[in-house]
Write a structure and sequence with these properties.
alpha/beta, globular
Length: 290
């Protein structure tokens, strides 16, 4: 290892939550591996800016086995097992749910669900062997709630929350914590790169109903005003600094109170389900149950 700093790997660090999180960890003095796609092409400016701040910029495409494996090998050579892994890379497919073809839905899941699975497989083994670490998943309030015209995107977030929560129990005996961060509406680049349905004829068949999506988009834009990605970054850093074994499973940031109510009501029910199966040893302390 090149130094004794704590280390963090962040996917999708070129902009939005990922960029803000990388900058926040750098301010805290962490060895920060800011991973992104096309670091010498379309994201060259972002890569240069991150390097100027002291980040280790690493090329990583979460949809490619070869890219993820190469990035993990580079990072493990530099620091060994990392202290924190932040699964942030993602995109958003929104619009009339029926109008997304199966190929389009697969592309959404390739990044938002299979991507973190791929990244986890590259980094978790070393963390388990060392018996410490934290994996953070950047989800969404629609990972616990549903809005019309966000079915494909929300489905990917519900899927990653299920994978994250299941793995939180499996990883607890190895000293590895899992935390899910659920942002509300924020004005990040994910909205600028929004993917709409690829079956235009199917959208047209919905007539005026399809236009309701515009109302939801306007509502989200209003809800995001005055909010900064730095809020998400601070929440992730605080989770990283929190005592191991006592971190909350879910942290909602900048969302609506009803999502916290869902989390608060679901946590004891989930605990009781695991207890019914005799799995109390895999549960976090009550203080970290939400």
């Amino acid at each position: 290892m090149s130094d004794n700093k704590k280390s963090v790997v962040i996917t999708g660090a070129s902009n939005g939550f990922g960029r803000a999180t990388a900058e926040a960890f750098l301010r805290e003095g962490w060895r920060t591996f800011a991973t992104l796609r096309d670091a010498s092409g379309k994201n060259a400016a972002a890569a240069a800016a991150l390097r100027a701040l002291g980040a280790d910029v690493v090329e990583l495409d979460v949809t490619s086995d070869a890219s993820v494996d190469a990035a993990a090998a580079q990072i493990h050579t530099a620091v060994g097992a990392v202290d924190v892994l932040v699964n942030n890379a993602g995109n958003a497919f929104m619009g009339v749910t029926e109008a997304f073809t199966p190929d389009a839905v697969e592309r959404q899941f390739a990044t938002n669900v299979i991507g973190p699975v791929r990244v986890n497989r590259a980094f978790l083994g070393a963390m388990r062997e060392r018996k410490s670490g934290l994996v953070v998943y950047v989800s969404s309030i629609v990972g616990r709630s549903v809005l019309p015209f966000m079915g494909v995107y929300a489905a990917s977030k519900w899927a990653i929350e299920a994978l994250a929560e299941s793995s939180s129990y499996e990883l607890r005996p190895f000293g590895v914590d899992v935390a899910i961060v659920e942002p509300g509406a924020y004005g990040t680049n994910i909205g600028e790169s929004l993917t709409t349905p690829d079956d235009a004829a199917r959208v047209a068949s919905y007539g005026e109903v399809a236009n309701i999506f515009g109302q939801i988009g306007a509502g989200l834009a209003t809800a995001s005003q005055g909010k900064s990605a730095d809020e998400i970054a601070r929440a992730i850093v605080e989770l990283a600094k929190a005592p191991a074994g006592n971190r909350p499973l879910r942290t909602m940031v900048g969302g609506i109170p009803q999502v916290n109510e869902i989390n608060e009501h679901a946590a004891p029910l989930q605990r009781s389900i695991l207890s019914r199966f005799g799995l109390d040893a895999l549960l976090a302390p009550e203080t970290a149950a939400v």
